[in-house]
């Protein structure tokens, strides 16, 4: 059974006249009759009761007509659907996410993207930052969010900076340091410092914080690690220690937590990059990156 069989069947069913249906389709009437017989053979039942005076749909023909119309309508829409998909106006886009860090920019970017491309389905996959490049290579995601690119990976990935945020000290409102307007690394080194446990490759929150101390000639203190950022927030709120986090976390802090600027020499910024494979030809990816780019420019200008 092919689409032409359904098209011929629908024409006869709607006109209940083989001659008028043949004229509508611009085919010879004998050829039309053969196509209908072939369709009836494929279905294993008669679709029309016909004689020299009239043509009438059988019960099977009536049931088939609604389905045939729906299939023909869908088939007619397929070329436009393919064109829309080629332009990135339809399809499915899968993004890597790290909710603790992307809350400051991703929701607004998703809303702007949905307004421009409402037919695109966006999926978020929660993955630790250090695992997102691996997910890009495997095809698990199409755009990832990372804090750093390893040497040589610039040849493999394109990137766009989406976050540039200073590190801040995070503590409970009742913590003694909360009375200070600013704190120093020396102040923090004397406290019980908390960090999220590292990834399998050994990198992670604590490693980044150690570098903050080492790069300023300070001996890194001991960091007590917890399983997740949510656990870290709970521990800090319970005055079990303090932590150092990128300022992008400030929107997620509960009322019992406060942040303080950190006095330190040199670079004191945390950066996030949107990354995607250079070889990825997807217009979906290019469209989302363009939305991110415009929102990043607007946010920086503001």
Question: What is the helix fraction of residues, given as a range?
Answer: 40-55%
**What structural category arises from helix and sheet content?**
alpha/beta
Extended strand count? 12
Question: Under the CATH scheme, which class of the largest domain?
Answer: Alpha Beta
User: Per CATH, what is the topology of the largest domain?
Assistant: D-Maltodextrin-Binding Protein, domain 2
Low-pLDDT residue spans:
none
Q: How far from one another are the termini?
A: 61 Å
Shape verdict = rod-shaped
Major beta-sheet overview = 6 strands, mixed
**Mean model confidence by pLDDT:** 88
* N-to-C series of helices and strands: HHHEEHEHHEHEEEHEHEHEEEH
- CATH architectural designation of the largest domain: 3-Layer(aba) Sandwich
Radius of gyration, taken over Cα atoms and rounded to an integer in Å? 31 Å
Q: Helix count, per DSSP?
A: 11
How large is the share of residues in beta strands?
A: 15-25%
List keywords for this structure.
D-Maltodextrin-Binding Protein, domain 2; 302 residues; alpha/beta; 11 helices; Arc Repressor Mutant, subunit A; two-stranded antiparallel sheet; 6-stranded mixed beta sheet; 23% strand; 3 domains; 12 strands; rod-shaped
């Amino acid at each position: 059974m092919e689409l032409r069989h359904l098209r011929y069947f629908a024409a006869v069913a709607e006109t209940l006249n083989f001659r008028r249906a043949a004229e509508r389709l611009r085919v010879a009437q004998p050829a039309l009759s053969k196509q209908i017989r072939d369709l009836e053979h494929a279905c294993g039942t008669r679709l029309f009761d016909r004689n020299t005076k009239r043509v009438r749909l059988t019960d099977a023909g009536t049931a088939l007509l609604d389905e045939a119309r729906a299939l023909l309508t869908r088939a007619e829409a397929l070329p436009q659907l393919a064109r829309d998909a080629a332009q990135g106006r339809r399809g499915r886009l899968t993004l890597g996410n790290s909710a603790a860090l992307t809350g400051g920019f991703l929701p607004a970017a998703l809303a702007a993207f949905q307004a421009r491309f409402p037919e695109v389905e966006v999926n978020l996959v929660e993955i630790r930052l250090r695992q997102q490049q691996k997910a890009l290579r495997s095809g698990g995601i199409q755009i990832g969010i990372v804090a750093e690119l390893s040497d040589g990976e610039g040849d493999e990935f394109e990137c766009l900076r989406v976050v540039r945020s200073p590190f801040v000290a995070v503590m409970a409102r009742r913590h003694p340091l909360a009375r200070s307007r600013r704190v120093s690394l020396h102040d923090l080194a004397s406290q019980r410092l908390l960090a999220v446990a590292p990834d399998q490759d050994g990198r992670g929150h604590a490693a980044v914080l150690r570098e903050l101390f080492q790069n300023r000639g300070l001996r890194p203190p001991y960091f007590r690690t917890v399983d997740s950022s949510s656990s870290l927030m709970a521990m800090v709120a319970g005055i079990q220690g303090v932590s150092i986090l990128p300022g992008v976390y400030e929107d997620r802090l509960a009322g019992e937590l406060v942040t303080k600027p950190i006095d330190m020499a040199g670079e004191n910024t945390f950066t996030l990059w949107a990354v995607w494979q250079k070889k990825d030809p997807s217009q979906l990816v290019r469209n989302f990156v363009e939305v991110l780019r415009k929102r990043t420019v607007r946010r920086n200008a503001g």
